[in-house]
Amino acid sequence: MTAPEHSRAQTTGALAATGSFLLWGLFPIYWKQLEGVPALELIAHRIVWTLFFLLGVLAWQRRFGDLRPAFETPQRVGLNLLSSLLLSANWTVYVWAVNAGHVIETSLGYFLVPLVNVALGFLLLHEKLRRLQWTAIGLAGVGVGVLLLRVGHVPWIAFALAGTWSGYGLLKKRSALGPIAGLTMETLLLFPVAVALLLWWHHIGTGALGRVDGRMHVFILAAGVVTAVPLVLFAHGAQRIRLTTLGLLQYLAPTVQFLIGLFVYREPFDAARLQAFALIWAGLVLYSADGLWAQRHRLKS
Questions:
Q1: 283 contacts 139 by C-beta, under 8 angstroms
Q2: Residues in Cβ contact with 243 at an 8 Å cutoff, skipping those fewer than 6 apart
Q3: DSSP secondary structure, the chain, as one string
Q4: What is the Cα–Cα distance from 232 to 13, expressed in whole angstroms?
Q5: What is the pLDDT of residues 141-200, one digit of tens each?
Q6: Do 39 and 94 meet the contact criterion of CB atoms below 8 Å apart?
Q7: Closest Cα to residue 288, out of 115, 124, 105?
Q8: Which residues contact 108 (CB under 8 A, 6 or more apart)?
Q9: What are φ and ψ of residue 199, in 5° steps?
Q10: Domain count across the chain
Q11: With bands split at pLDDT 50, 70 and 90, how would you rate the model's confidence at 220?
C-alpha cells in the first residue's frame, strides 16, 4: 500500500469508527421512540431483524463460509452461546434503563467498561497492572463509593452493563469469528427463542406487531439495521486505525449518551453525582494516558 493509499485508509477508518461510536451514543433517542413496548420484546425483535439483516450482508458478500468455524466443535458453539446470552442481557438492561429514565447511568456503565476490562484481566488472566492502571481503578472505585454514600444509590445498571459488556468482550477475544459473522452466529443461536416469544406474545394479544401505529412498526422493524450498521462501521474502522486511536474514540458513545440524558431528557445530576463522575473520568484520563505511554515505550524499544 502506497503512502497516499495508507493515509486514505486511515482517514476512512477514523471516520467509520467515529460514526459507529456516535451512532451508539445516539441509541437512547431511538429506543425512547419505543418506550411503550416492553424491553424483553424489543430485544426479541432486535435479535430477529438483526439476524435477517446480517444474513443479507453475508449473502451479498458471499461469505457464509465465515460461519463455519463456529460449528467445528461443541466448545465453540458453547462459547458463542455464552457470548449471545451476555450480549442479550446487556441489550435488555440497556433498553429497559433508557426507557425507564436512566440514560445517564447507562453512560456510566460504558465509561466503566475499560476499567472493568483491566480488572478482569488482572483477576482472570493474571495480567500485571501498572501503577497508573491501579490508580485509575482506585479513582473509579472512589467515584462509585461517592454514589453509594452521598446519593444512597447502588449503580446496578452501570455495573450490569459494564460487567456484561466486558465479559462479552473477553469471550470475543477467544472467538474464531469476525465481528459480522460473530454477531450473526450469536443472533442465530437465540433466534428460535426470540421467534417463539414473539409468536406467543402475538397469540395472547400483547405483542406490538399489528397492534401499534405505522410509525412504531417502522421503528421496530428497523432494529436490525440500527443494530448492525454501527457494527459494520466499527469493523471497517478497527481494521484501518491504531488500537490506541480506537480506544480513545470509544469514549464518544458514553459521552453522547451522557449529554443526551442531561440536556435532552433532563435527568437529575446533582453535585454528588458530578463528583462521582469526575472521579471516574479522572480515572479514564489516567487509563488513557497510561495506554498512550505504554505504546510509545513499545515503539521506542
A1: yes
A2: 295
A3: --HHHHHHHHHHHHHHHHHHHHHHHHHHHHHHTTTTS-HHHHHHHHHHHHHHHHHHHHHHHT-GGGGGGGGSSHHHHHHHHHHHHHHHHHHHHHHHHHHTT-HHHHHHHHHHHHHHHHHHHHHHS-PPPPHHHHHHHHHHHHHHHHIIIII----HHHHHHHHHHHHHHHHHTT-SS-HHHHHHHHHHHHHHHHHHHHHHHHHTT--STTTS-HHHHHHHHTHHHHHHHHHHHHHHHHTTS-HHHHHHHTTHHHHHHHHIIIIIS-----HHHHHHHHHHHHHHHHHHHHHHHHHHHHHH-
A4: 11
A5: 899 888 888 778 789 999 999 999 988 888 887 777 888 888 899 999 999 999 999 999
A6: no
A7: 115
A8: 155, 157, 158, 254, 258, 277, 280
A9: -65, -40
A10: 1
A11: very high
- Burial status of residue 222 (CB atoms within 10 A of its CB: 0-12, 13-18, 19 or more): middle
Cα-Cα end-to-end distance for the chain: 25
Sign of CA dihedral 158, 161, 167, 170: negative
Q: Is residue 184 within 8 Å of residue 48, measured between CB atoms?
A: no
Q: Which of 249, 227, 294, 296 is nearest to 10 (CA)?
A: 249
- Tell me the pLDDT of the chain averaged across its residues: 88
For cell 435477517, name the residue.
Answer: 52
235: Cα separation from own chain's centroid: 13
pLDDT of residue 25: 95
The C-alpha cell of 120 is what?
478482569
Distance, in Å, from the CA atom of 294 to the CA atom of 110, rounded to the nearest integer, reads 23
Domain that holds residue 289: 3-300
Please report how the helices 131-146 and 103-124 are oriented relative to each other, as an axis angle in degrees rounded to 10: 140
* Cell of residue 145, nine digits: 463509593
Q: At what angle are helices 223-238 and 39-61 packed, to 10 degrees?
A: 50
